[in-house]
Amino acid sequence: MLGPASISALPTAIRVDDEVSAIQNAAPVGAKPSRTRLRSLTMDYRHLQQRKSLHGRIVQELGMDIVGGRVQPGQRLPAEADLCERYGVSRPVLREATRVLVAKGLVVSKPRVGSVVKPRAEWHMLDPDVLFWTINSVPEGEFFSSLLTVRRVIEPAAAALAATAATSDDLARIASAYDQMERAETASALLDPDLEFHRAIMAATHNDLLAYIGNMLSLALTESIKLTSRHPDTHALSLPRHKAILTAIQSRDPLGARHASLVQLDNARADAERVLETGSQFQTQP
Question: Taking CA 219 as the corner, what is the angle to CA 221 and CA 187, rounded to the nearest 5 degrees?
Fold first, then answer.
């Protein structure tokens, strides 16, 4: 279940540099990570092409087992010999996959013990793979509620800061994203400019950490927007809410921007609740 641990994990959002460091620390002293090992850091473990990569398949399935709760924090992964037999791979291939899970904060490898699942608070929750596995492992409404809590902490403050820190170029970028939202003819077409609108506000704060968090939240925000987009009046409801945020930022009104952002998020919660209550009746327009 997602909860406070998800929020506390924000400062430890994973970066490639962090994973490289984790891989290096897992290697013997003086040894350098192989090209194969470093290449595994940038691999997409969410969309494996026809599951051709055994390495990718192992990472994905073990990651899903951990995030989905089939292996609980404090428990050990199956023994190396058992996993090698299950997947038909050698120990080096299995250990390479385990190192990726270590770099994502999911497990710790202990001599003569094996790989042990770490507490949820130590997982890199904003790592794209961990986030994707989480989205697919918890009820939709539960994930949305957890994400909205995080958004309420970050987005109103970011909007207020953007109202004072944005340059003319920043304002033009935010306005351009809104214009594209207005021109969108379907809920699907609204997705990209909606994401860009929020990214542009984060960038307009001129705070590198906020901008980074905004980028790392893109996958989660995409799923959130897809959920609320199943509301039949999503376009008519979304535009005035975003327009209010834009107008406040353009007017250099930080209190107004904060309030408009909170209103938008409260309305998004109401829209999502209606969609979830109605079930499959609302579908995203083609």
Answer: 55
